Write a sequence for this structure.
């Protein structure tokens, strides 16, 4: 288990929004059915808007399946959409519709995003991305994640309040000013 350091470090395997050379890398371990992750979603969006090119956002799956029965399949849906170049679009739709994560809902979202729905349905049915989701979860455990959302800023666990939006964004701005660098 980690003492608050991100394991493994950010790599090309990750879903990342923003420049590789942004001075701040924000990693979220999240669960699409978690109400707290749903509350954090618009805060992260505002941080992305405010910091612009100074922020790189990475999302890793951490489905708490015992509490959230649709979390694993939702994570697999995001990964299946990612395979078709629409990870972030599906990520946003899932958070915006946390109360509708049945397979039929996921198929509807895939269609609305213009995905190959036959391929998407096959991917969910056979669990094409189940291992990827499990790997993210295991890596989260190795990094000391025990709930969602859990954030890491430039490789270190962020233990401040993400729910205090101003303080959260200020912490990200401070990290950007330090210019630590985050390239993978």
């Amino acid at each position: 288990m980690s003492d608050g350091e991100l394991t493994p470090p950010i790599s090309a395997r990750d879903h990342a929004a923003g420049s590789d050379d942004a001075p701040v890398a924000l990693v979220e371990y999240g669960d699409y059915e978690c109400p707290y992750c749903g509350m954090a979603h618009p805060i992260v969006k505002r941080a992305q808007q405010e910091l612009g090119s100074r922020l790189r956002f990475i999302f890793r799956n951490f489905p708490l399946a015992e509490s959230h029965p649709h979390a694993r399949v939702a994570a697999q849906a995001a990964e299946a959409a990612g395979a078709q170049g629409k990870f972030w679009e599906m990520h946003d739709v899932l958070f915006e519709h946390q109360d509708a994560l049945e397979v039929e809902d996921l198929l509807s979202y895939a269609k609305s995003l213009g995905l190959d729905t036959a391929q998407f349905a096959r991917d969910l049915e056979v669990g094409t991305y189940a291992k990827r989701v499990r790997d993210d979860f295991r890596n989260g455990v190795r990094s000391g994640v025990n709930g969602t959302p859990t954030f890491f800023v430039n490789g270190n666990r962020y233990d401040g309040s993400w729910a205090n939006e101003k303080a959260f964004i200020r912490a990200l701005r401070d990290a950007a000013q330090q210019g630590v660098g985050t390239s993978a």
Observations:
- The two ends are 22 Å apart (CA to CA).
- The chain has a mean pLDDT of 94.
